């Protein structure tokens, strides 16, 4: 099955990154905060967990990351 953006554009669903929203994530978020969020999920509640590791070989049409795609494994920024 192939699904394209126009096929799902009319669906009333959140983006995969929409909850919790970006402002909830910062350097102060740690294990205790994640534990609290996970414990807040009620038994039987449907959830869709996901992990995004932004080391893609190409950008997807769905990507909301502030990033730049480069050929090869070129480092754009090094933490100080």
What distance lies between the first and last C-alpha atoms, to the nearest angstrom? 45 Å
The total strand number stands at 0
Q: What is the residue-mean pLDDT, rounded to a whole number?
A: 70
Major beta-sheet overview: none
Overall 3D shape: flat
Secondary-structure-derived class: mainly alpha
The tally of helices reads: 2
Percent of residues in helices: 10-25%
Radius of gyration: 16 Å
What's the helix-strand series? Answer: HH
In percent, how much strand structure appears in the residues? Answer: under 5%
What do these coordinates show?
- The protein is mainly alpha-helical.
- It contains 2 helices and no strands.
- It has helices at 5-8, 31-39.
- The protein is flat.
- The protein starts with a helix and ends in a 41-residue tail after the last helix.
- The model has no long low-confidence stretch (mean pLDDT 70).
Task: Identify the notable features of this structure and list them briefly.
mainly alpha; 2 helices; 80 residues; flat
List the helices and strands and how they pair.
Layout: H1 5-8, H2 31-39
Enzyme class: oxidoreductase
Keywords: Oxidoreductase
EC number: 1.3.98.3
The gist of it:
By secondary structure, the chain is an all-alpha fold. The protein has helices at 5-8, 31-39.
């Amino acid at each position: 099955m192939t699904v394209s953006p126009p096929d799902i554009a009319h669906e009333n669903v959140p983006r995969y990154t929409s909850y919790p929203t970006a402002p909830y994530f910062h350097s102060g978020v740690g294990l205790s905060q994640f534990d609290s969020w996970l414990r807040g999920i009620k038994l039987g509640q449907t959830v869709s967990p996901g992990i995004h590791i932004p080391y893609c070989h190409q950008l997807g049409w769905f990507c909301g990351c502030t990033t730049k795609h480069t050929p090869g494994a070129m480092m754009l920024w090094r933490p100080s």
